[in-house]
Structure formats: C-alpha cells, structure tokens
Design brief:
Strand order of the largest sheet: 1-2-3-7-6
Number of domains: 1
Bound molecules: thiamine diphosphate, magnesium ion
Distance between the termini: 50 Å
Order of helices and strands: HHEHHHEHEEEHEHEHHH
Radius of gyration: 19 Å
Oligomer: single chain
CATH class: Alpha Beta
Number of helices: 11
Helix content: 40-55%
Largest sheet: 5 strands, parallel
Shape: globular
Amino acid sequence: MLPSSDKLVWMFRKMLEIRHFEEKVYELYGQNLVPGTIHLYVGEEAVAVGVCANLRKDDYITSTHRGHGHCIAKGGDLKRIMAEILGKRTGYCKGKGGSMHIADFSIGMLGATAVVGAGIPIAAGAGLSIKLRGTDQVVACFFGDGASNQGTFHEGINMAAIWKLPVLFVCENNLYAMGTRQSMVMLIENVADRAAAYGIPGVVVDGNDVLAVYEAAKQAVERARKGEGPTLIECKTYRHKGHSRFDPATYRPKEEVEEWLKKDPIPRFRNKLVEMGVLTENEAKGIEEEVLAEIEEAVKFALESPYPKPEEALEDVYA
Ligand SMILES: Cc1ncc(C[n+]2csc(CCOP(=O)(O)OP(=O)(O)O)c2C)c(N)n1
Ligand SMILES: [Mg+2]
C-alpha cells in the first residue's frame, strides 16, 4: 500500500534536503572550510529516506562514513550537522567529531563511524537492548557492499538472527568499496543471498526507487516489531561522486556512470508524484526552494558559529 500524501511529500522533501545539503558541503569543501575529508551520499538518497519513512522517533539507526543522509532522514538538525562538518562548537559533537562521527541520541541516531562494518554489531546490541527492555522499537543498520565482507557482518547478523532481534540490516550496494568493484571481491551478485546463511529473509530492491525501498523496509519493520527477527535488505544504488572528495572515480566506466545518472532517484520520484497527482510541478518547485533556503540558513549558522576553544580540547573525549 502507498504511504499517505503527507508522507510522500515528506519523503520528497527529505531527499531534496539530503541532495542539496551534500552539494553545499561539496562546495564548502572546495573553499577549504571542511577539515578532514567527506563522503557524499548524492545518488543514494532513496535508501535512507525509504527506510526512515517507516521509523518512529524512538527507533534507532546506525550509520557509516557516508552518513549525512542517514542523519537527515532520521530527523537530524541541518544546522548542527553542518556545524559539526565545519568543525564548529555548535555542532553535534561540539566540532570535535566531524563528518564521520555525528550522533544524536535524542532522535535514535546512534552514530556514524569511520570503521567500515562497525555499525553492524552496534545495531545488534541496540536490538538486544530493545528485546531486554521489552519495547517494540526497531533498529535500522546502514552499511555498504564493502562492509558486507567484514567479519562484523557475519557476527552481527548471525547473533541478531538467533536471538530474533528487531534489526533491519540495510546494505547500500553502490557497486564499489573505494575503487574496488564488487565483482573483484565477491563471487555472488546479491549481498542479500547471504541472508540464507543466517536463516533470515533477504530481499533485493531497486535502491533508486524510494517507494520500493519504503515497501521492503515496511515489511521488515512489521516483522521486527512483532518479534520475528531481522531482515537483510539490499538496495542497489550508485554514488554520483567519487568515494571521497578527492576521488575522481576514474575506475568507473563512463557509460556506467551515465546509465546510473539516468536513474537518479530524485527526478524519478518527482515525476512519479506529479503523475500521481500528489504534487504539481509548481508545488514541487516550491518545496525545492524552501529546502534551498533552509540549507542556506544552516550554512549561515555554521559559518557564524565559533570553533571550539583550545582549552576545551580534552573535554567530552575518552582518553
Ligand atoms: C575497517 C576498515 N577498513 C578499511 C577502511 C578504509 N575504507 C574506508 S571506506 C571504505 C570502503 C567502504 O565501502 P562500502 O562498505 O561499500 O561503503 P561505500 O563507501 O561504498 O558507501 C574503506 C575500505 C576503514 N575505514 N575501515
Ligand atoms: Mg560500496
């Protein structure tokens, strides 16, 4: 069943927020305003949004090095995310975590991590905490195709499976782990096929179709809330940019990139909403303008915020 019109519009707005936020971060990076590096989610927006559209505020997510989109889809504050990326004191980690360490427990965003595959056992742990507390919350765990070759994938999913923990394991298969093509490191085509090894359902979906992702996640959430255990959802998608800001991604054939650009999830969804009569072209344009204004405000907030003081360097950190 289709989500309500309100939810469809929310999904469209969130996808635009992620896209324009990321493009702005890309631009700010070029102006030397972003310390460290960045990994952009442009092209993969339908995954985070399709999944998070099924989650409540008290549900959890775990994220990755490519995590801005997950945080935005879960309801993260654009100003605080932008401030954190710029290393400012008003950011989620007071400017000390940066792009890859954003967390917001108040919305169930348990954290991004630069360690590939590290979110998987954390999600299983959060699932166990839910089970022990006896609530009907769920966890959505985002990770890449590369992460699915880490030992944590086996350990985390197996444990969640045997204990029937309420976790959605969401593989964002963008075909590459840095410059390594999936076929160079895996003999199977679908990460979801690995679900059979754990005795749980594995589903492959078009990760550039937000409604397909929404539907797969909906079923997995229902199953998880009923105590029936985890699901592995593999979303086939593509990052429009290189792995990180400095990667020109020359290892990808030009034709492949062009093919995927044609499948851009945002124009696809926009056309669908117009076709379905949920939005007019003008309304869609209006939403995009609102989103752009919101992002400008976030940038202004972040630029005007102070850096942390040197004497605060050892506060809030483990040593
Ligand atoms: C444990 C670990 N090994 C290697 C790296 C270096 N590294 C950073 S991102 C990345 C690729 C991850 O690929 P994937 O899981 O497919 O995610 P994607 O970047 O495609 O979203 C690697 C190897 C790391 N950060 N952590
Ligand atoms: Mg990948």
